[in-house]
Amino acid sequence: MNHFNYQTDRLHCEDYPLDSLAGTYGTPCFVYSASAITTAYQTIKSAFGYHNPLICYAVKANSNLAILKRLCDLGAGFDIVSGGELVRVLSVGADPSKIVFSGVGKQTNEIEAALAAKIKCFNVESEAELHHIAEIAERLGTTAPISLRVNPDVDPKTHPYISTGLKESKFGVPMNQALRLYAAAQSLDGITVKGLDIHIGSQITQLAPYLDALDKMFILIDQLSDQGIVLEHFDIGGGMGIRYEQEPDFPIEALSDALQQKIANRKLEIILEPGRYIVANAGILLTQVLYTKHNESRAFAVVDAAMNDLIRPALYDAVQAVLPVIAQPNPSERFEIVGPICESGDFLAKDCLIDLESSALIALASAGAYGMSMSSNYNTRGRAAEVLVDGAQAQLIRRRETIDDVLAAELNLGTVTSAPSSTNSAG
Length: 427
Ligand code: LLP
Prior knowledge:
The protein folds into two domains: 4-31 and 280-405, Lyase, Ornithine Decarboxylase, Chain A, domain 1, CATH 2.40.37; 34-278, Alanine racemase (TIM Barrel, Alpha-Beta Barrel), CATH 3.20.20.10. Helix content is 30%, strand content 24%. Strands 4, 14, 15, 16, 17, 18, 19, 20 and 21 form a nine-stranded mixed beta sheet that branches. An eight-stranded parallel beta barrel has the order 5-6-7-8-9-11-12-13. The protein has 13 helices and 21 strands. Helix 5 packs across helix 6 (127-139). It is α/β, with parallel strands linked by helices and 427 residues long. Residues 58, 61, 79, 102, 162, 199, 202-203, 237-240, 273-277, 312, 316, 370, 374 line the site of ligand LLP.
């Protein structure tokens, strides 16, 4: 089922017309389909059914509390990358034994909070981090459950900014150091070795990079077991791509089948960290045309959403479909959809065949992942509202930010701090 569809000539999210939502909540506004999220989650769950995996939703893709709560209620665990994300998932009642903590730069207070919460696993990305976590755990009289994130040196064939599994990237530990680091981890009092972790990139549309990475990791897993280091789990990360334009559906079942074959009779719990796959096509960004303008070669539609709301087109040359909220039978003009921000990079879509005039409403498709979660206040614009639709019911799940919200953190204008005296007298 397509969760965004035209009923008569109006675009709906499930059974709610988007023009009514714009009237009630204003624009720009992210609109999410609850059943699309559930369906995507269940699709992964059942495709990997043989493995009975722990699905740790990558919170960074869309961290709205209402969405986290839904996924938590469906039984999901969470992949977090900051203390802030830890607070988010705990606040919706996440089971700490289903939380994994990824990221190359975990800070002392974040590690302490995750240890206190008793999370399932830290995905450790460097030798220095391993020792830092061990010291903190020992100081707190506990042990930290860890996986090493190993960089398998495979090319995921995606945008360079979201390729993470090549040996040149900052992520994970190099394969040729993995055995040594596992042995070191095993010998540390503050550490309990639990598993192995990979994450090779994002918006991956082919199976081959995963298969290469799995082959390399099973060799490592066997070498470790020969050395007496028997792992409990294998976290294969996220990265499963979605259809923005013409991309094929990600072969999720083929990945599960290949894993089943490769895992053979090894006893390993499987963890997945999908983000985009679960939420990207569950969301659109609803925006209104403010003005149209033409120069010699182009037609522009200036809309009220901008790169601060959806940075993917500017940052990754992402192409996200543009849908008119009121269907147009014979669009005749090609528009560039741009925002009000003072940068030429502030575009949301290029070369769209669509008829537009002021006050027209459009929806940018596939905006449920890395849309709101990457938004900013650039140009002192408040962040957009977010609405979750379930059938014919809509719920505001984040109100539009006001200018007071945006300025609130800056209002402590009375406090002046002097530099320490040694710095003061230096010159
Ligand atoms: N696990 C780890 C350790 C990650 O770093 C990521 C994403 C995921 C899981 C989830 O990946 P996914 O299943 O969503 O592909 N802002 C970019 C995507 C950045 C992905 C960063 N890491 C974009 O808009 O395309």
